[in-house]
Every structure is written in structure tokens, then in C-alpha cells.
Automatic annotation (TrEMBL):
Residues 24-274 form the EAL domain. This is Diguanylate cyclase/phosphodiesterase. The chain holds residues 647 to 924 of 924 of the full protein. Coiled coil: none annotated.
Length: 278
């Protein structure tokens, strides 16, 4: 019906949908062995302080190197992992792997890990985090968990209790993709958050649409008022970075600073600078 309304031609049989479904069933099947066969790996995208260009840390973004289809985006396979329940196992692997790699990074650099709502509902996220930290030696303050608003749709109370417990151990909590999805302001009053990530769809449109700019201004002011750090996602141009900085957003990530594989390169530069100044 949505398609008909949008002016598309209605058809009761959409072959491309059938192809998509077959591929998704295939991916679901193959995913069961992908962990064991080490087909997943992490990319790290730098998070930057706008004013200084300083590297603050990186977000871990999962990739699947499928033996037949090649590199598959998490935008495609994470939803499949969520509907099949495999997300808990995959998410646990991501958490452990991200902590293990980040423990070797210098200084205070942080690592952000995306955590699915289902991991909060169905697995013992507190035990997983504590095991990942103790196993890797990464200090809790250097781990940030990124949750989306969907985490609070179901069993909000239980999720909030787990978030509080995690935060008490020193782990940083960020709300990802803020402003999209089923946004409701009311939960912001009760969530134990440290950071708010402005969704890239706002960043993308803020310089073309004055209304979007006002929304970004309001999000930043809301975050400041709630004493939350603001991180802008998807910063691609100097123009966007300047506008965000003028509005009071101090940190961001995006192709302007590095693609999701460039944190490691920046780390070695960071090391070199440290050695020079030492
Ligand atoms: P996200 O957490 O919001 O991650 C940001 C996404 O934006 C990443 O896509 C990143 O590559 C992309 N991005 C970063 N900078 C730019 C930019 O300047 N321009 C544009 N156009 N895009 C940019 P990616 O890696 O494809 O990941 C997509 C989503 O998949 C992530 O969105 C996250 O929700 C999910 N995801 C990734 N890894 C994991 C994971 O380990 N666990 C879970 N549960 N979800 C994950
Ligand atoms: Mg994220
Ligand atoms: Mg995001
Ligand atoms: Mg996203």
C-alpha cells in the first residue's frame, strides 16, 4: 500500500522481493557457521574532537567476509541476526574482540561497541561485559556501549536497571542514532546516559534545510542541559563540522575524519606524536 501511495505500480508478485528473501534465508543459514569459521572482523572508525582534530577513540563496526558473496554490510546482516536470535552470540564476539583490540591501544583512547536491544533482553550483558573487560585488561572507562532507542521499547524497566548496573562499573553509555525511530523525549529523563549520538540523517541535511539545522541546535542544547556529551555521526564535510562546532557539538565521526578502517592508521600517528612530545 505504501508503494501504491508513493506512486509506484502495485504488483502482487515482486520478483526482487523474492530474490531478497532467498538471499536473506541463505545468509541466515550461513551465519550459523560464520563465527566458527572466523568470517567476521571489526573495522574501527575514528571519533574526533573537532577543535583540535585529536583522536578520542573509535567505534567498532562489524563486517562479514562471506566466502561466496564477499563483504556484507551490517545494515544487511544485523537485522537477520536479530530476527534469528544469532545476534546475542555475534554481539558477544564483537564485544570481546573490540575490548581485546582496544586494550592494545595507547593512552585513554576509548572503544565504542554497538549493542543490540536483544542482547540486553536475552543475554547476561553484565556478565559478558565484565568478562570482556577482565579478559582483555581494558579499563571499564574506556568501553562505551552504544544502544539505540529500540532498546527501551520492550521491557524498558529491566533494560534501564541493567544499564545502571553497567554504568556503575564505569562503562560509558551512549544513545545511538538519536532522533530517528520511535523517539520520545520522555525516556531521556530516566535513562542512565553519558552520550548522545546525533543521527547522520540530520547531519546530512542540516546545511540544506534550515528546519533541520534548528532540530540539530535543539538536540545539542538538550544534550548540554542534560549534561550529556554530544557526538555527531556521519560528518562528511568541513561545512558540517564547522556548523556542528558552532552549535556547541564538540566531537564527531564520519568520512571527513576517517572511514571505518582508519582508526588504526590514526593510532600509529598518535603514537608517533606521543613519542615526539615525550
Ligand atoms: P551505526 O552504529 O550508527 O554506525 C554508523 C554507520 O555509519 C556505519 O555503518 C558507518 O560506516 C557509517 N558512517 C560513518 N561515517 C559516515 C559518513 O561520513 N557518511 C556515511 N554515509 N556513513 C558513515 P556500517 O558500518 O555499515 O554499520 C551500520 C549499522 O550496523 C551501524 O550503525 C550499527 O547500527 C550496526 N552495527 C555495526 N556493527 C555492529 C555490531 O557489532 N553489533 C550491532 N548490534 N550492530 C552493529
Ligand atoms: Mg553505533
Ligand atoms: Mg548511529
Ligand atoms: Mg545507524
Amino acid at each position: 500500500a505504501a508503494k501504491a501511495l508513493a506512486g509506484g505500480r502495485w504488483s502482487s508478485f515482486d520478483p526482487s522481493a523474492a530474490v531478497r528473501q532467498a538471499r536473506s534465508r541463505r545468509l541466515e543459514r550461513d551465519m550459523r557457521d560464520a563465527l566458527r569459521n572466523r568470517q567476521f572482523f571489526l573495522r574501527f572508525q575514528p571519533q574526533i574532537e573537532f577543535a583540535s582534530g585529536r583522536l578520542l577513540g573509535a567505534e567498532a563496526l562489524i563486517r562479514w567476509n562471506h566466502p561466496e558473496f564477499g563483504l556484507i554490510s551490517p545494515a544487511e546482516f544485523i537485522p537477520i541476526a536479530e530476527s534469528s536470535g544469532l545476534i546475542c552470540e555475534i554481539g558477544r564476539w564483537t564485544l570481546f574482540e573490540a575490548c581485546r583490540e582496544a586494550a592494545a591501544w595507547p593512552g585513554e583512547l576509548g572503544v565504542a561497541v554497538n549493542v543490540s536491544a536483544l542482547q540486553f533482553e536475552q543475554s547476561d550483558i553484565e556478565a559478558d561485559v565484565s568478562e570482556a573487560l577482565s579478559g582483555s585488561g581494558l579499563p571499564s572507562s574506556r568501553l562505551c556501549l552504544e544502544l539505540t532507542e529500540s532498546a527501551f521499547l520492550g521491557n524498558g524497566g529491566a533494560v534501564i536497571a541493567k544499564m545502571c548496573a553497567l554504568r556503575e562499573t564505569g562503562v560509558v553509555i551512549a544513545l545511538d542514532d538519536f532522533g530517528t525511530g520511535y523517539s520520545s523525549m520522555s525516556y531521556l529523563a530516566d535513562l542512565p546516559l553519558d552520550k548522545l549520538k546525533i543521527d547522520q540523517s540530520f547531519v546530512r541535511r542540516m546545511n540544506a534545510n534550515p528546519n533541520v539545522l534548528e532540530i540539530v541546535r535543539a538536540i545539542i542544547s538538550l544534550a548540554n542541559g542534560l549534561k550529556l556529551q554530544v557526538v555527531a555521526e556521519g560528518v562528511e564535510t568541513e561545512l558540517e563540522a564547522d556548523a556542528l562546532q558552532r552549535l556547541g557539538c564538540e566531537t564527531g565521526q564520519g568520512y571527513l575524519f576517517g572511514r571505518p578502517d582508519e582508526a588504526i592508521r590514526m593510532l600509529s600517528k598518535w603514537n608517533a606524536q606521543k613519542r615526539l612530545s615525550a
